[in-house]
Amino acid sequence: MRDREVEAGLHHQASSPAPVPSVSQTPDTSTLSILCSAQVQSHGCLLFLLGPAAGGCVPGSVVATYRKTHLCDVELPGQGPMRESNSTMPGPGLESPVSTPAGKIGLAICYDMRFPELSLALAQAGAEILTYPSAFGSVTGPAHWEVLLRARAIETQCYVVAAAQCGRHHEKRASYGHSMVVDPWGTVVARCSEGPGLCLARIDLSYLRQLRQHLPVFQHRRPDIYGSLGHPPS
């Protein structure tokens, strides 16, 4: 497969109006699908949506829906408490990777990136690109954002595409921004700054396959000895 370009880094100020109507403003999912299709056809890109009717959208149809499985219930000094479980139910499971012209895409969201089991499961199911649309905070962003994305790329030997919200939501919460794309070697190949922007990255599946052939870590995994090591510490 020849190289593909993916629009990977579009992000807006948290307080800015969206360029297309939001899910809540759209009367039904069929109208939303039409709006998605128009955006995809006019810009020639893959489209990902976050919300109650979340899904990847290609001309005329919703091809997959993923609901976040790991909820962010944390309290960090300087960032304000997050209690997603107060208003959100976790998704029931993972979605199989979606075949697209750019490659097979594994779907995940924000806090999911802290759980390598999820990304490894997607890679073992055939994912070549992992997506993490996110809203990292001003404390965790500088410390963990790039490190986690590069780690997920290295351990899965996948491209990682992470579009990130930026700007202030309200006086107690701001999002870090810095959308980026990481290649399977762990190199950041495209990134945005902390403000609104767009970055483009080239997805080279032949490079991905070559890397997996030269460094066959999935053939070396030993699930027979890992046992209960993934359980919470006592």
Any overview of this molecule?
By secondary structure, this protein is α+β, with helices and mostly antiparallel strands. It is 25% helix and 25% strand. The chain is built from six helices and 15 strands. It has a six-stranded mixed β-sheet, covered by helices on one side. The chain has a three-stranded antiparallel β-sheet with strand order 2-3-4. Strand 8, helix 2 (116-124) and strand 9 (129-131) form a beta-alpha-beta unit. It is globular. The termini are far apart. Residues 1-41 and 49-58 have low confidence and may be disordered.
Low-confidence stretches: 1-41, 49-58
Strand content: 15-25%
From the helix content, strand content and strand pairing, which structural class follows? alpha+beta
Order of helices and strands: EHEEEEEEEHEHEEEEEEHHH
Q: Order of strands across the widest beta sheet?
A: 7-8-9-10-13-14
> How many angstroms separate the termini?
48 Å
Question: How does the overall form come out from the CA principal axes?
Answer: globular
Radius of gyration: 18 Å
**Average pLDDT taken over every residue:** 78
* Major pleated sheet: 6 strands, mixed
Number of helices: 6
Q: Could you estimate the helical fraction of the residues in percent?
A: 25-40%
* Counted beta strands: 15
